Amino acid sequence: MQLTVKRFEELSAAELYEIYRVRVAVFVVEQHCAYQEVDEADRHCWHVFLHDENGIAAYCRVIDPGITFPEASIGRVLATRRRQGLGTRIVSEGLKVAQERMHTDTVHIEAQTYARKLYEQLGFTQVSDEFLEDGIPHIGMIWRAQ
Questions:
Q1: How far apart are the C-alpha atoms of 146 and 143, rounded to whole Å?
Q2: Which residues are within 8 A (CB) of 44 and not within 5 positions of it... i.e. 6 or more apart?
Q3: What is the mean pLDDT of residues 45-68?
Q4: What is the per-residue pLDDT across 87-134, written as a single tens digit (0 to 9) for each?
Q5: How far apart are CA 20 and CA 23, in angstroms?
Q6: pTM (two decimals)
Q7: C-alpha gyration radius of the chain
C-alpha cells in the first residue's frame, strides 16, 4: 500500500478523477446523500490517500486553517476496504500532515456520529452536540497534539 500526499495543483488528472470517483461512490451513492461533494475546499488542502494496484483504499483531505474552520481540518474520510484499519491509518496520516506540513497542533472536524469511537481512539474530543449535516448526524470534534 502506497501513501500519496499532494496539494490540489500537484494531482494528476487521473488521481483527481479517482479521488472524486471514490468520494462520490461513498458519500453520495452509498450514503444516499445528494449534496455538493466537490467543493472549493478541495483547492485549499492536502489530499492524502493510500492506494495500490486496485486503486484508492483510503482517503482524507487536510484543509488549510481558515477555510472551513479557524483551525486545520480533516474531512472526506473514507476507506473503500472496510474492517482493515484503513480508516484509522488514513486519519493518522492526515494528523501527521497537519503537524508536519501545516505546522499546526489543533485539528477541528465534523465527524459522522457513528465514527465517534474511531476519532476518540486517535485523541479527538467531542466539542458540540449532535447536529444534522445533509441529513446525516454529525458531531464537532477537536484534536490537540500532546
A1: 9
A2: 8, 63, 64, 67
A3: 96
A4: 999 999 999 999 999 999 999 999 999 999 999 999 999 999 999 988
A5: 5
A6: 0.93
A7: 14
Q: Quote the CA–CA distance of 136 and 116 in Å, as a whole number.
A: 14
Q: How far is CA 53 from the centre of its chain?
A: 22
Terminal CA-CA length for the chain = 28
Please answer whether residues 58 and 48 qualify as being in contact, where contact means their C-beta atoms are separated by less than 8 angstroms.
no
Sign of CA dihedral 36, 42, 45, 49: positive
Which has the closest alpha carbon to 75: 46, 116, 110?
Answer: 110
Residues β-bridged to residue 75 = 61
